[in-house]
Specification:
Strand content of chain B: 15-25%
Mean pLDDT of chain A: 97
Shape of chain B: globular
Oligomer: heterodimer
CATH topology of chain B: Rossmann fold
Distance between the termini of chain B: 30 Å
Structural class of chain A: alpha/beta
Number of domains of chain A: 2
Strand order of the largest sheet of chain B: 3-2-4-1-5-6-7-8
Helix content of chain A: 40-55%
Shape of chain A: globular
Order of helices and strands of chain A: EHEHEHEHHEHEHEHEHEEHEEHEHEH
Radius of gyration of chain A: 21 Å
Number of strands of chain A: 14
CATH topology of the largest domain in chain A: Rossmann fold
Helix content of chain B: 25-40%
Largest sheet of chain B: 8 strands, parallel
Chain lengths: 356, 229
């Protein structure tokens, strides 16, 4: 298939249409505004629904309503806007509703900057809302992955009746890259017999709710959720590696920094440093065991975590995975400053030296 | 055939427009540098109020070292997502001793900023160039490309004077892509009655036999991604 040149945000939007998204509800915010802009033109052309909501809070609650009635629903935003959606996301998880949420992260906290960052890792993987819930979090490292993951996200959400977050950063949203529209793996999905689409001769009404008056019932429901999350942990862990077979220096990174690491690996190898990359793709469930096993290999001497976050957030999961087997150091910037190839090469050499 | 900046366009002021993501900024930066290298006193104004990333002002240092005066909104405005334009832009239109390049935001919505300068622009020796990339899905057909071109003319109140074929696939570009774009550009040119002024080609392609029949404007890639720097 011939490649086409797409901007990340418009490709994410087109991917949603191709995944059969019925309804999009959003509110513009840089650097993801091209997602609603593209969908505002193209969703109606496909007979689908686009609503520019009055706020991010309204948008996520519209997603709740549409998902509850069995529609494939999506919203997208950037960091401050995704913060506003957190209440809606915990309600989606609590009502077991499938939905896709795209976050093109920018610098924070607060309004921060409009440049790319990764400071929302905790929010996405720990749950920014209340209660014991989890969202599947997929982190693309290029536009092709963004396109593929958005399409798969709808299936994953439907399979587990749970919100799925596609966690990109502003650079992925804003840059141009060649992609191809290939088929993504389709899943066998359960019927949405829980959706509020009318009674249709059933002996009961379907009710979408997350309220439990009886504490024991709420306890049971949480146990049910925990079982579901365990299943997701067993089935949905994803990661990628590059040049790790003989690596002495293992760099961990996701998204845009992982892309920059690939260039740093070439320069490190050219300088005689055996370096490799471990790239988590599913941030929750985190690829804890694969990282643990790799870090345990005798050739790995040191680990360097790189993020667009000032002290690191994913590094907590890296530490849990590595379990103290090897020393871990950190390189990061926040506020829209992107770690450079040179900085990665220097930090990698330093990490190895300190480990010796 | 390899073109110089003056052979691409000899008008005093060049306005670079087109669908977003077609490579307007890459053309604007390369064209301004080529003008400067040819000895022209050159100014480039970054009037992109649409794109928050990958703007010509990010190459300010490179251009200033080549003697180009770069005009853009203040740092405060450019990174705060404020669509404000500096008054200094008028120097490009008023100083007839210089060659001016205006790097305009994508689509009719980005080109709208020119409408504010239209009464001054039409008094100058200007050309509005339409950058076209056949790999961009929204403009790969003649009809849709024409729609963008005519919409840009409508919102700016200006007439397009030339088409620039910038068909590429970032690092995956081949001469085949440039030829594919040339075909589209010629078809749009025929429909619109507007000449194709050049075909952009990375310097590594300028010796390609298959491209020898095209008017090539050799370019270097300046708008790089963080892993290409």
């Amino acid at each position: 298939m011939e490649k086409e040149l797409w901007k990340g945000n418009e490709a994410i939007a087109e991917a949603a249409i191709r995944a059969g998204c019925d309804c999009f509800f959003g509110y513009p915010i840089t650097p993801q505004s091209e997602v609603p802009e593209y969908l505002s033109l193209h969703m109606p052309q496909h007979g689908k629904t686009f609503v520019q909501a009055e706020s991010e809070v309204a948008a996520i609650n519209m997603v709740y309503g549409a998902a509850g009635s069995g529609m494939r629903a999506m919203t997208s935003s950037s960091s401050p806007g995704v913060s506003l959606k957190q209440e809606g996301i915990t309600y989606l998880a609590g009502a077991e509703l499938p939905a896709v949420i795209v976050n093109c992260m920018r610098g924070g906290p607060g309004l921060g900057t409009i440049q790319p960052a990764q400071g929302d890792y905790f929010q996405a993987t720990r749950g920014g809302g209340n209660g014991d819930y989890r969202t599947v979090v997929l982190a693309p490292s290029n536009i092709q992955e963004a396109v593929d993951f958005v399409q798969e996200a709808f299936d994953i959400a439907d399979q587990y009746r749970n919100p799925v977050v596609v966690l990109a950063d502003g650079l992925i949203g804003q840059m141009m890259e060649p992609i191809e529209w290939h088929d993504v793996p389709k899943r066998k999905l359960p019927a949405k017999d829980w959706a509020t689409t009318g009674r249709k001769g059933r002996d009961h009404h379907n009710i979408i709710n997350s309220l439990y008056i009886d504490p024991n019932e709420c306890d049971d429901f949480n146990a049910h959720l925990a079982k579901k999350y365990q299943l997701i942990k067993e089935n949905e862990v994803r990661w990628d590696t590059k040049d790790t077979d003989d690596a002495e220096l293992l760099i961990t990174a996701y998204g845009t920094p992982a892309r920059i690491v690939l260039t740093a690996l070439e320069q490190l190898r050219a300088a005689g440093v055996k370096a490799g990359l471990f790239r988590p793709i599913s941030l929750w469930p985190f690829p804890e065991k694969p990282l643990h096993d790799l870090a345990g290999q005798s050739h790995i001497k040191a680990i360097l975590d790189v993020e667009m976050s000032i002290d690191g957030q994913m590094i907590d999961d890296v530490r849990l995975g590595v379990e103290g087997q090897k020393p871990i150091s950190y390189l990061g910037h926040a506020g829209g400053v992107i770690p450079t190839v040179d900085e990665m090469v220097e930090a990698g050499k330093k990490a190895l030296k300190e480990a010796e | 055939m390899i073109l110089t900046a003056d052979q691409v366009c000899s008008s005093r002021v060049v306005l670079v427009c087109g669908h977003y993501g077609t490579g307007k900024t890459e053309f604007a930066v390369n064209y301004a540098l080529a003008l400067a290298h040819a000895g022209h006193a050159t100014m480039l104004a970054d009037v992109d109020i649409v794109n928050p990333y990958f703007r010509s002002r990010e190459r300010r240092k490179l251009m200033e070292e080549a003697g180009i005066r770069v005009i853009s909104s203040s740092q405060a405005c450019s990174d705060a997502d404020v669509p404000a334009l500096p008054a200094e832009i008028l120097t490009i239109l008023e100083n007839r001793d210089i060659r001016g390049v205006m790097d305009v935001g994508g689509d009719p919505v980005g080109a709208r900023v020119l409408a504010r300068f239209q009464p001054k622009i039409i008094q100058e020796d200007y050309d509005l160039l339409f950058v076209l990339n056949a790999n961009r899905p929204e403009v790969r057909a003649v009809e849709s490309a024409l729609l963008y071109l005519r919409s840009i003319e409508t919102v700016t109140g200006l007439t397009c004077g030339g088409i620039v074929n910038n068909t590429h696939l970032c690092g995956e570009t081949t001469p085949h892509e440039i030829l594919k774009g040339a075909e589209l550009a010629e078809a749009v040119s025929k429909e619109a009655g507007i000449p194709v002024v050049c075909h952009m080609a990375e310097r590594r392609f300028t010796g390609e036999g298959s491209l020898s029949g095209l008017k090539l404007f050799p370019v270097d890639i300046y708008m790089k991604k963080p892993w290409e720097l």
